[in-house]
Amino acid sequence: MHRLLEETPRERVAAELAALIGDGLDHRRTLAALAVATSRRVQPFPHVGFKYHTVLALQSVHLTALNLSGKERWLPVFWALDYFKRAQEAERRQSGWTMSARPAPMTGTVEAARRRLIDALDRWDLEAVDPAVLDFARLAAPEQLSEVLFRYGIRDLRAIGHKAIAVQNVHRLLPIVGPENAPPVLRSLAAALQNHGNGPNPATSDLTSDRTWRAFQAMLGEIPKTWKQGRRDDAARNELVRTLREVPELDAGRAVIDLLKRGVSTDSIWEALFATAAELVLRRPTVVPVHAQTSANAFHHVFRHARAESTQLLALLQAAAFMPAFRRRVGNRRPDLRIDELEPLAASGTGAEALREAFAELPGDRISGARKALHYLQHGGSADAFAASARRHLARNGRYSHDYKFTEAALESYGEMAPTAWRNRILSASMAYFTGSATAPNPVAQEALQLLG
Fold it and tell me: How far is 449 from 282, CA to CA, in rounded Å?
């Protein structure tokens, strides 16, 4: 099916998909075909971003679709298909690239394959990593493959967090696409992890984007072995939020290590990172600051799923280091907007009516939307209803990959946090980039609804 998606012109492909759905095509097979088609036809160069979002957004599209029902469940898929066709057209114009033929497998043991993959990744050798990732995937258990990919997805501060997002995306997609469709997805990811822009080879250079990774590895020995038994500490969380407003990248990681030494739980630390990210988006709800939230969510995914404690800790430290980088992108824009000072604003109605009123503020007055959402949640409003409303508006009105990536990252991070008052603040601040009911309907979604009858 992926060839149908690749070869059918954009103006006809939606009708072709609708006909297949009418004949019984299921969501899982469609997503698998999209994963293969996007990986084969859109390369993660020159940027791990831009057109490559047709790959990066797929796990978010999947999460949105899973939480919708009926015809609405197909709307994210139609959006993703149309976005792919536009990205494919851009790739044709810019480079003419398509994925090369699959390299022949090499013989050897799983450990030898692992060493070849790690060696290629360490050398930033794009040609060597392509066959190496396939050999290791063929021989290793899925969790062994994930451990390697997790570690190299978090090793540098390039691409505003897209490498961690790419690893999270593939980790979630592989069980859906199955081993038969995994090779192009893995080859695409491995290439993305080797992208270092137009700079010199990081393996033989001392580049800014790689310094925190090396420094934090040297600092791991300072962290107590009991770091997983830390205590919740709201004062320490607030302290870290204040610190992250001021310090550079390396000092952000040092501040986290200091809290771990003091016995503060990683839950409190992650809450501070999510709060910092939400505050940055609230202050400047544009594409680059949005990645403070989506990358924090991706690093947290690695933290939760990696088995090696060193990888877990490095994900935490690298996530913290990214926050000052995003803060510089925001600059002095609205410094008065602070997550801990966000004041609730009562809506004219209550319950479902209050929730509708909050989303009706978007995109015109995002701060009022955030304040009304905070009032709704603080007065017993349903977070499930909130999430359902966000996804319905996204499916019908969302137009961009970041709409999907950001919404699902914010909702998942909320679900992973303990039920504190700050959790409501963080979710409410995310209204700054949510899709609202006042946003113009997406023509792709409207066409899909018509095609589906």
Answer: 33
Kind plus residue range of the DSSP H or E element containing 117: helix 110-122
In whole angstroms, what is the distance from residue 27 CA to residue 280 CA? 35
HEC letters along 126-187: HHHHHHHHHHHHHHCCHHHHHHHHHHHHCCCCCHHHHHHHHHHHHHHHHHHHCCCCHHHHHH
Q: Is the pLDDT of residue 11 over 90?
A: yes
Residue 44 has pLDDT above 90, yes or no: yes
Residues 6+ apart with CB under 8 A from 446: none
Cβ distance 133 to 118 under 8 Å? no
For residue 180, give every residue at least 6 positions away whose Cβ sits within 8 Å of its Cβ, in sequence order, or none.
Answer: none
Which pLDDT does position 421 carry in this prediction? Answer: 87
The residue count for the chain: 453
Q: Which residues contact 430 (CB under 8 A, 6 or more apart)?
A: 278, 281, 293, 370, 406, 410, 414
Percent of residues, the chain, with pLDDT higher than 90: 98
CA-to-CA dists, residue 286 to 33, 281, 292, 293, 329, angstroms: 31, 7, 11, 12, 10
Q: How far apart are CA 300 and CA 16, in angstroms?
A: 38
pTM of the model: 0.97
Average confidence score pLDDT of the chain: 97
The torsion angles phi and psi of 264, rounded to 5 degrees, stand at -80, 140
In this prediction, residue 107 carries a pLDDT of 86
